[in-house]
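FORM 7B: Structural annotation worksheet

SECTION A. Query
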Amino acid sequence: MHDIKHGFTAACLAAEIVGLTFHDLRHTFGTRLADAGCDAVKIRELMGHSSITRTMRYMHASDEVKRAAVQMLADYTENRGHKSGTNDKQPTPRLAVSS
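SECTION B. Predicted structure
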């Protein structure tokens, strides 16, 4: 492990990359797996974590993935017949209030 970290540090120096640590690669790994659609259980197993909670610390959703999630909700809503401009709501029932 020492040799790998030494080589990583040397590569960062040669590439003039400042502030990147060897541990940052774990965050990149978890995030990229999630971005690719891999579920948290598989990522947990690949990263060797005992809990999903720890794995979630290594998964950071990108803006692109967040936009795709919102689009999935829009598509879902549209496919269920709730298109914009229509009002499919039932009237709200009124409750009798006694004084």
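SECTION C. Observations
The two ends are 76 Å apart (CA to CA). Residues 8-78 form one domain.

SECTION D. Sign-off
Analyst initials: ____
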